[in-house]
Amino acid sequence: MKKLLILFCISLLLCGLTACNSPASPAGQNSPEQETQTAENSITQYSSLEPVVLIGADSTGEGAAGQLLGECIAARLDEITGGQLTMSYHPNGELGGDTDLLRQMQNNDIQLVICQTAPVVSFIPNMAVFDLPMVFAGYDGDTIEAVLNGEDSAFRAALADAYQEAGLRLLGFLQNATYRLTTAHIALQSLEDFAGLQIRTMENTNHMDFWSAIGAMPTPLTWSEVYFALRSGAIDAQENAADTCVGANLDEVQEYLACTNHILYVNQICINQDAYAALDPLYQAALDQAVAEVIAEIRPQLQEIDQNNKDQLVANGMTMIEYDAAFFDQILALEGVKELYARIDTEQTDGLATLLQEELQTAAE
Predict the structure, then answer these.
(1) Backbone angles phi, psi at 51, to 5 degrees
(2) For a designed S-S bond to 258, which of 15, 122, 182, 290 qualifies (C-beta 3.0 to 4.6 A apart)?
(3) 2 lies in a domain?
(4) Residues 242 and 348 in one domain
(5) Phi and psi of 125, rounded to 5°?
């Protein structure tokens, strides 16, 4: 997995924006020499600036999308600035779990963090909007992208303001309509099968309330404890994205892979606001450029990566369970789930949940 990650980042570097995204025109196409000169001229603008090293981190499973995003951004940043602005990147929990990393970033001990949205809620309450069960499930990746990263998105602007209030700066989201799944010891064929299921969740009250609403027994554990808790039978199940399940070898301790699609698998990347403000404007632009380019290049691959990881789990002996629309409708009709929607909208996000649903509908039209 690590070798594939490195090869993927190298391929992104070899396929820069000039080569990949510029329209080819026989009459106006630059020669390789001209493209090299343009790149050298672009790098020269950073040569008079003091070199800066940012510290970035994630706590994802090895080879997961969050690690891919961080390491490719670090590589692209080095390429854009000729090594003047670099990121020392620490994946897979080298510097701590999500909560630890976010706290370190708030203190500017580290500058950038990539993680899923659930841990951010403790620092930015409006991020609870991502806890709405199955709110993204009816939309494709392009529609979701327009709302989460679109320049004209009122939802994105509102979130950016919320990050700023917490002393952070939102840089972007990586997603492509793939979701968190459920692995378990038992076949979760119907809603009734979730009754009494002891399932590991993130340390997120809304996630726990969702599982309680459908009859399960949520148990928050740190990620490092999950494999052993599943192997010992201390818990019955866990929920996560397919790549994380593969990276943690959960097929060794779980028999079933249920496509509950309850939470969008999305990684956010943010930076300490003071650290960003301290950067020269050229470095700020380079960082924004690196993030935008890498997200645009990785995003189309996420569906394939998700399917390949599901296939690998099945090939390793797991049984995959998929559901029809009636299953999801049954869940959304539960009183506890409807109450959770209302509580997130009115008590936690000041109407942002409503704005999200409205913008998704508008973007899909």
Answers:
(1) -60, 145
(2) 182
(3) no
(4) yes
(5) -55, -30
β-bridge partners, 272: 168
Instruction: Give the number of other Cβ atoms within 10 Å of residue 224's Cβ.
Output: 11
**Range 125-143 average pLDDT:** 95
pTM of this prediction?
0.84
* pLDDT at position 40: 67
Of 252, 24, 208, 196, which Cα lies nearest the Cα of 118?
208
Q: Is 23 inside any structural domain? A: no
| pLDDT > 70 in the chain, percent | 89
- Residue 217 sits in a domain whose CATH number is 3.40.190.170
The answer to whether position 29 is within a domain reads no
Supply the range of the domain harboring residue 318.
181-263+306-364
CB-CB neighbours of 221 under 10 Å: 17
Structure tokens at 295: 């997200």
Number of domains in the chain: 2
Given the DSSP bridges, would you call strands 198-201 and 217-220 parallel, antiparallel or unpaired?
parallel
Collapse the DSSP code of 216 into the 3-class scheme (helix H, G, I; strand E, B; otherwise coil) and give the result: coil
Query: Could you tell me which residues come within 8 angstroms of residue 113 by beta carbon, excluding any fewer than 6 positions away?
Result: 56, 57, 58, 98, 101, 102, 105, 269, 270
Residue type, 215: G
